[in-house]
Amino acid sequence: MRVLVTGSSGHLGEALVRSLRALGHEVAGLDAAASPFTNCVGSITDRACVKRAASNVQAIFHTATLHKPHLATHNRQDFVDTNITGTLTLLEEAVTAGVAVFIFTSTTSAFGDALSPPPGASAVWVTEELTPIPKNLYGVSKVAAENLCQAFHRNEGLACIVLRTSRFFPEEDDSRLVRETYADPNVKVNEYLYRRVDLEDVVSAHLLAARCAGRLGFRRYIISATTPFSPHDMAAVRSDAPSVVHGYVPEYEAEYARRGWKMVPGIDRVYVNQRARDELGWQPRYDFRLLINRLRAGEETRSELALLIGSKGYHGTRFTAGPYPVKNPV
What is the pLDDT of residues 103-122, one digit of tens each? Predict the structure, then answer.
């Protein structure tokens, strides 16, 4: 099968190109930046470029995007042009080219302020039924692009699957307080309890979504590591996360103590991947319990694919105050 991957020079894009080629697919990579995994150098806002890239393609994996870290370095129109108009252009050319499947990489950031419970409230049990309340233009643009996918399924018959992925980037946290309080590996292992996923599992979810898209038509899925928690834990996990984690994975405490790590005192949201596991047959490998077992055995916590892709960053410039500047314009 011939497939198109947008954002093929990026973190997820390269991982998808590598994985699809290993499975024997013919892959066209489209990205504004040149790389060994991009044979169509150009913008998704350039219709002529998109038309060429989509020619004779059966499936499109659309990962190209401006991310949250770009809020401080790009203007509002850039987000509209890339994340909304670029997605529209891809969808239109997909229909024209007779593409059968369109997989859109979205983000759990789309939920925005719906992820922030008021003081004293339980943590949010985040399923696909939660209504997004985007808090910046990144979230707004991703929700708008998701809705375009839904409209093209409804009106054009294009099978579109939206994957709202949680954190899988290897860069340090943008919060100075977090960086000063926790070692970076400690931060990431903690997040597997509620808002992180390994790159290998993200790729497998995309491949399964493409396989199931014709049967499903249009669906949205949360793609995050399987949490050990249940809905009944949400009050306790907000106020005393270490005690709740101890009830599920008690061996974490000795390993954390050995490394001088800390568990977060409270968790405000928990991403739930049940629908993706039920409907796609997705079986993510990397979760908190596995990582604790690997740490105890002295093994690497990241997948081989994540290690191979490494860190690409978001900007060509280094910033003194952190991995990237933080700004949340409307």
Answer: 999 999 999 999 999 999 99
Phi (first) and psi of residue 21, to 5 degrees: -65, -40
Instruction: List CB contacts of 211: < 8 A, sequence separation 6 or more.
Output: none
β-bridge mates for residue 299, sequence order: none
Residue-range domains of the chain with CATH: 2-173+195-226+270-285 (3.40.50.720)
Residue 48 neighbours by CB distance under 10 Å: 9
Bridge partners (DSSP) of residue 41 are: 31
Tracing tokens 């396989």 back to the chain, one arrives at 211
**CA-CA distance, 284 to 21, in Å (whole number)?**
21
Is the separation of the CB atoms in 29 and 3 below 8 Å? Answer: no
Exposure of 238 by Cβ count < 10 A (0-12 exposed, 13-18 middle, 19+ buried)?
buried
Enter the pTM of the model. Answer: 0.94
Residues in the chain: 330
- Between 329 and 73, residue with greater pLDDT: 73
**pLDDT digit string (tens) for 140-178?**
999 999 999 999 999 999 999 999 999 998 988 888 899
